[in-house]
């Protein structure tokens, strides 16, 4: 059975955002995020998508929002470069909106769902990475097999926080350790016990 994976960065006081922005600048960590997600699906909430200002290149961007039409209408600068597939009926997924770049590059499609429950990871041949924000992480972590977590080695001011995960995940690998941050790979404890 295929599961989601989560990828995140948090400070020592669990901050992941401040004013809809990332409150640090760590180019090496951004490169790690890009390497892990390139060619895959990134799942994010509306606020995270809007904070980026544009879709992540060379990835399918899946946006979760309760108001998809409002999102589409408020960002003509983004969605004007895409053509819409009504209802996504050409695939077996029940999402509401599917946009493909006008140049036909399906690797950069934008998919819009109104809930995580509508998304079945088994329907996609590529990995699905949960990328934020706080509410999306809280909803998705119970369904994730892996968590790749950057720990920023400082306390920062913020208004978005990473949810508790320690009772559900076990550390399996220290991926990288730098002066300003470390990256750790955690696995879902229940799946580890099952040998998955």
Textual characterization of the structure:
With 196 residues, the protein is α/β, with parallel strands linked by helices. The protein has a single domain, classed as Dihydrofolate Reductase, subunit A. Strands 5-6-7-4-3-8-1-9-12-11 form a 10-stranded mixed sheet.
Brief characterization of the structure:
With 196 residues, the chain is an alpha/beta fold. The chain has helices at residues 27-37, 46-52, 68-74, 76-79, 134-140, 189-194, and strands at residues 4-11, 15-17, 41-45, 60-64, 82-86, 97-101, 110-113, 128-130, 144-152, 160-161, 169-177, 181-188.
List keywords for this structure.
single chain; 196 residues; alpha/beta; Dihydrofolate Reductase, subunit A; ten-stranded mixed β-sheet; two-stranded antiparallel sheet; globular
Q: Return residue spans where pLDDT drops below 50 for at least 5 consecutive residues.
A: 88-92
What is the strand content? 25-35%
Highest CATH level, the class: Alpha Beta
Helix content: 10-25%
Contiguous helical run count: 6
Number of domains: 1
Please report the distance between the alpha carbons of the first and last residues: 9 Å
SSE succession = EEHEHEHHEEEEHEEEEH
- Helix and strand composition category: alpha/beta
Outline type: globular
CATH architecture assignment name = 3-Layer(aba) Sandwich
Please list the strands of the largest sheet in the order they lie side by side: 5-6-7-4-3-8-1-9-12-11
CATH level-four homologous superfamily name: Dihydrofolate Reductase, subunit A
User: What is the CA-atom radius of gyration, in angstroms?
Assistant: 17 Å
Summed over residues and divided by their number, the pLDDT gives a mean of 90
Number of strands: 12
Classify the fold: give the CATH topology: Dihydrofolate Reductase, subunit A
Largest sheet: 10 strands, mixed
